[in-house]
């Protein structure tokens, strides 16, 4: 923008060019403003109000955020969200990496990887429905554990907390590992051969090869995979809503589910917006902090 | 030149903007000669019944019905509420009575139906006992879309296999449950999703109906020793294994049909669910009124619900909406509506074809039962939300009843502080 106007000015007719340019970009700007900026700013505004969706919003300053701090449902919700963050950034990423490493460069690798990719075809809601049936009390999961004489046959996976959150994380792992494997595979393929060959000549192989050569070279991609998982886990909603609706008794809610419930089920749009705002800030802060940390680490490596 | 370019720029912006926004306004409702009303509802599964009524209304008053069904309650409520603030309003919509109706009436958007009620009561199309459910600050709003009594549905084959009969006292019911349990059948259905209040409601209205009403009006506390005692009784029943798994994803009608569960407590609207499962009333399944827990109470209390059909003051075509509602409460419309679904009707003139329903309807009409407004409508919305969660959590961990009651009471305190 500034560049265009300054070069324009030099040509003397700059201001008019600027105006007509503005005219041509304004529809796009308006669309973005109306569809992206306005709802965001509105949500921020609502988070400082008491708004039931029917009468006009009442300004309550920081009340919603104060309420946030001593809401027992929120404590559970934050705890569960942390479970999700830790669970889905560690397990599916690790499994994905393992699948990629083990199947990379061997004959028929694609065929071996294929079954892991298939679950990704499911939507989060579909995942919730299917795993809901598997995990329900006396469902397939219980039957299987019973048959194998394993512990857990009597646990109601979707009813008891924190098993319900853990069970859903397992379902998510089932779906996500394949995609992570795919991403890691792209990373592995993009590693240039010279350093690998040099390492091999120096006698590196197996775990040492991975630890000192492959893993550091894979780092940029690992950053992306973990970063994506981090954001996805913080906003976990669909699978929980479909499988347990956050219940029973709000025991499996995540922050995103709490936000939805407060806003749309309890018609407490002000409070719901406050939860949304906090969730956005947390997601933003965590992502930025993580990326900063990672990139600094990688720069050190160079 | 400069002006010309500015004009071009403005024109470009405006045209592009307009094409972007175009196609939004569709003005299909023009004036008083509408031939269709759009009926928004949260009963997506009842599409054919709405269409059945619509066919009849088309013939009789020249107004057809296009049902717009939702199946997810929160989405539906959010949509209806949002429509109050936009120009895309429904002609008619279903809602619930009680706190939720008051909420939208207070916003000043719901059409007053006081005149319609006066006429309908005078004609004997609606019974006067229903009026309080539809009265807010002395005026009536909406008309009854459905009425239902809460009774116990039971699988007749399971009962006869176990050699038990519909009970006539609470002690009898418990004995029946023991017999069924010993046969390996779960005596009662329960769910922790949405309908988690059902057993609390039944136990409390059968023990102390006044206390139930006082809870609804904030006069009594959920931590009252008598309420605690009801929870302990419920816990005792949970501990004895009388209930089906609260988190089961199976439909209750399917569980009743397969005989996995012997009894389920539902509104009479559940009849529709049973018949669509292919079960025949009176031969495959029956229904009975649950006896009071406290035998010394003079009359048996039955939970009762009535859901409204509403229109808005700023409806697209208020005359058409009113015309339809006037017709809706009459015998012919109600006969079609109630009997196609197999439920009772708000219109006392309607002959109910299902014999046990008809008996129930007659008994209730003659004042054999005391009616208690269903928990869902009786409680203020924030208290209801907390209670549904609390009871759901209780079912998974019955030992936590004290904590759950405290949580519900907290919501109640909060609500009554400002209302």
Automatic annotation (TrEMBL), chain A:
InterPro entries: ABC_transporter_permease, MetI-like, MetI-like_sf
Keywords: Cell membrane, Membrane, Transmembrane, Transmembrane helix, Transport
TM ranges: 21-45, 82-104, 116-134, 166-188, 209-232, 269-293
UniProt KW Isomerase keyword: no
ABC transmembrane type-1 domain: residues covered: 78-290
Main localization (coarse): membrane
Protein location: Cell membrane
Domain of life: Bacteria
Pfam families in the record: BPD_transp_1 (PF00528)
Membrane topology according to the record: Multi-pass membrane protein
Family membership: Belongs to the binding-protein-dependent transport system permease family.
Name under which the protein is recorded: Permease
The organism of origin for this protein: Asanoa siamensis
UniProtKB/TrEMBL annotation, chain B:
PROSITE patterns listed in its UniProt record: PROKAR_LIPOPROTEIN (PS51257), SBP_BACTERIAL_1 (PS01037)
Tree of life domain: Bacteria
Signal peptide positions (record): 1-20
InterPro entries: Bact_solute-bd_prot1, SBP, SBP_1_CS
Matching Pfam families: SBP_bac_8 (PF13416)
Keywords, sorted A to Z: Signal, Transport
Family: Belongs to the bacterial solute-binding protein 1 family.
Identification of the protein by name: ABC transporter substrate-binding protein
Organism, as annotated: Asanoa siamensis
């Amino acid at each position: 923008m500034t560049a265009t106007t300054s070069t324009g000015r030099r040509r003397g007719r700059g201001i008019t060019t600027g105006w007509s340019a503005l005219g041509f970009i304004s529809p796009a700007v308006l669309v973005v403003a109306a569809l992206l900026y306005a709802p965001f700013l509105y949500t921020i505004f609502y988070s400082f109000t008491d708004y039931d969706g029917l009468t006009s919003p009442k300004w309550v300053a920081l009340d919603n955020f104060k309420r946030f701090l001593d809401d027992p449902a929120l404590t559970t919700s934050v705890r569960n969200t942390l479970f999700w963050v830790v669970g889905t950034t560690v397990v599916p990423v690790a499994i994905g990496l393992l699948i990629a490493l083990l199947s990379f460069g061997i004959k028929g690798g694609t065929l071996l990887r294929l079954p892991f990719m298939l679950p990704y075809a499911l939507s989060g809601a579909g995942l919730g429905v299917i795993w809901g049936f598997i995990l329900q009390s006396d469902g397939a999961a219980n039957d299987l554990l019973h048959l194998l004489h394993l512990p857990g046959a009597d646990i109601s996976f979707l009813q008891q907390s924190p098993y319900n959150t853990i069970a859903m994380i397992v379902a998510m792992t089932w779906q996500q590992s394949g995609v992570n494997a795919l991403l890691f595979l792209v990373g592995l393929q993009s590693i240039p051969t010279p350093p690998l060959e040099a390492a091999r000549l120096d006698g590196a192989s197996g775990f040492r090869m991975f630890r000192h050569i492959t893993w550091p070279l894979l780092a940029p991609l690992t950053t992306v995979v973990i970063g994506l998982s981090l954001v996805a886990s913080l906003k976990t909603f669909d699978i929980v809503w479909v499988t347990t609706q956050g219940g029973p008794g709000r025991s499996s809610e995540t922050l995103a589910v709490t936000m939805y419930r407060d806003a749309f089920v309890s018609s407490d749009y002000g409070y719901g917006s406050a939860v949304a705002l906090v969730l956005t800030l947390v997601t933003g802060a965590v992502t930025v902090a993580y990326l900063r940390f990672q990139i600094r680490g990688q720069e050190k490596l160079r | 030149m400069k002006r010309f370019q500015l004009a071009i720029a403005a024109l470009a912006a405006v045209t592009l903007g307009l094409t972007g926004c175009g196609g939004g306004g569709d003005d299909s409702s023009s004036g008083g000669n509408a031939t269709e009303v759009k009926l928004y509802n949260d009963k997506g599964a009842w599409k054919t019944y709405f269409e059945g009524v619509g066919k009849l209304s088309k013939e009789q008053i020249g107004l057809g019905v296009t049902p717009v069904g939702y199946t997810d309650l929160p989405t539906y409520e959010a949509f209806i509420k949002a429509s109050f603030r936009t120009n895309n309003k429904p002609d008619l919509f279903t809602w619930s009575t009680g706190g939720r109706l008051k909420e939208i009436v207070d916003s000043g958007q719901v059409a007053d139906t006081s005149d319609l009620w006066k006429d309908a009561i005078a004609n004997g199309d609606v019974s006067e006992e229903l009026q309080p459910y539809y009265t807010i600050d002395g005026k009536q709003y909406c008309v009854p879309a459905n009425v239902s009594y809460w009774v116990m549905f039971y699988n007749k084959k399971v009962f006869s296999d176990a050699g038990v009969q519909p009970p006539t006292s609470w002690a009898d019911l418990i004995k029946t449950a023991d017999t069924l349990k010993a046969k390996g059948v779960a005596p009662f259905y329960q769910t922790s999703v949405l309908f988690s209040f059902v057993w609390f409601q039944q136990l409390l209205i059968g023990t102390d109906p006044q206390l139930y009403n006082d809870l609804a009006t904030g006069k009594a506390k959920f931590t009252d020793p008598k309420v605690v005692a009801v929870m302990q009784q419920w816990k005792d029943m949970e501990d004895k294994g009388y209930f089906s798994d609260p988190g089961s994803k199976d439909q209750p009608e399917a569980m009743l049909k397969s005989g996995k569960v012997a009894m389920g407590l539902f509104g009479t609207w559940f009849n529709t669910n049973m018949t669509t499962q292919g079960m025949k009333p009176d031969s495959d399944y029956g229904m009975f009124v649950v006896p009071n827990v406290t035998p010394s109470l003079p009359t048996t209390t039955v939970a009762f619900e009535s859901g409204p059909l509403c229109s808005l003051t700023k409806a697209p075509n208020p005359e058409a909406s009113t015309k339809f509602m006037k017709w809706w409460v009459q015998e012919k419309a109600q006969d079609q509506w109630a009997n196609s679904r197999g439920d009772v009707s708000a219109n006392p003139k309607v002959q109910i074809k299902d014999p046990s329903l008809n008996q129930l309807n007659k008994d209730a009409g003659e004042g054999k039962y005391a009616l208690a407004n269903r928990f869902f409508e009786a409680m203020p919305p924030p208290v209801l939300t907390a209670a549904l969660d609390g009871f759901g959590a209780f079912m998974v961990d019955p030992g936590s009843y004290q904590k759950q009651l405290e949580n519900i009471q907290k919501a109640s305190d909060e609500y009554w502080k400002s209302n």
